[in-house]
Amino acid sequence: FPVGREGPTVTIGSNLAFLLSKRLAQPYLKEWVEVNHEARACAMLVDEQRLSHATRVSCAVGGACAMAVIFNAPFGGLLYMFEEVTSVAWPLELTFRVFVATMCCSLLSYGLCYLNNSEMEEFVIYAEKPADKEWEWRDIPVFIIVAALLGVITSMHTRAMLGITAWRQRVSATLRRLQPCARMMETVLYAAFCALLSTVVSLSDSCTKKGESGLQYVTFNCDEGEY
């Protein structure tokens, strides 16, 4: 995930929706099943297939709502999750559910900003002075080449993430006795690694004077008026 607001926001929204749906839907998916007719023995079973479907749908809805709120774009949240889930795993009824959820989340964010006496532009990722860069027809071959290279790199990145996920699952199974402390420590170490990497990259470059683009500069260890 990117070291910014949009990646963690989508992850938090999906995780919260997953946990809430699992907690709320599981009691309604339990039923008594007779396992021995002669002894009249029954057992409480959970319909895991229906529960998995409900949590997957909720996960997609939560991620779309998070993206819609952080960018103030309900349709953008729907399209983003459709791109991530792909049409193969996207149920037909999920489109309407995501649309209603993202619209409600956007209205709720507007209401919270109104109660806090703040503007939506102060909360969402928003460029006050977007760059006006024109392109020419001779740039199209470059766009095609860059798009092809990024497609290959994205495929390699996805395969790498799947490999890392499989490795984490094996390590988690090995450290089963130390859970959940092991996962908490993993999260802390990952956050520390991201912060260390960001700091090292910032320190490796020289300071530059601030421009007049209207963007928000990070001074870090530079002098006043530089970033």
| H and E order | HEEHHHHH
Shape: extended
Mean pLDDT comes to 82
Largest sheet: 2 strands, antiparallel
Number of strands: 2
Assign the structural class, choosing from mainly alpha, mainly beta, alpha/beta, alpha+beta, or little secondary structure.
mainly alpha
Separate helix tally: 6
How far the N terminus sits from the C terminus, by CA atoms, comes to: 25 Å
Helix content: 55-70%
Cα Rg: 23 Å
How much beta, percentage-wise?
A: 5-15%
Uncertain parts: none
Strand order of the largest sheet: 1-2
Report on this model:
It contains 6 helices and 2 strands. With 227 residues, it is mainly alpha-helical. Helix 1 packs antiparallel against helix 2, helix 2 packs across helix 4 and helix 3 crosses helix 4. The longest helix has 35 residues.
Observed structural traits:
6 helices; 227 residues; mainly alpha
Secondary-structure map with pairings?
Blueprint: H1 6-25, E1 30-36, E2 41-46, H2 48-71, H3 74-85, H4 94-115, H5 140-174, H6 181-203
Antiparallel strand pairs: 1-2
Helix pairs in contact: 1-2, 2-3, 2-4, 3-4
Task: Sum this structure up briefly.
The protein is mainly α. The protein is 60% helix and 6% strand.
